[in-house]
Amino acid sequence: METTKAEGTLREAAGNVKETIGSLAGDVGMQLEGKANELQGKAQQLCADATELARDAMSSRPLAVLAGATAIGFVIGALWSARRDTGD
Which keywords describe this protein according to UniProt (predicted)? Predict the structure, then answer.
C-alpha cells in the first residue's frame, strides 16, 4: 500500500507543477489538467489511507467489522426492497 500512497504523492506534486506552468504560460487547459492530476493524487492517497485503516480495524476488531458490514448490507437491502415496492 505504501507504493500507492507514494504514487499519489508524486502525482499530486506533478499536477501542482503542471498547474503552475500552465498558469505562467496562460494555458487554461494545462492548468485544468494539472489541477485534475493533483486532485487524483490526493484521492489516491486518501484511498491508500482508508485501505490501511480498514485493514488495521479488521485485524484488531474482526467481529466489530463483521457487524458493521452486516448492518450496512441490511440497510442497503432494505432501501433496495423499499424502492422496488414503490415501482421507481
Answer: Membrane, Transmembrane, Transmembrane helix
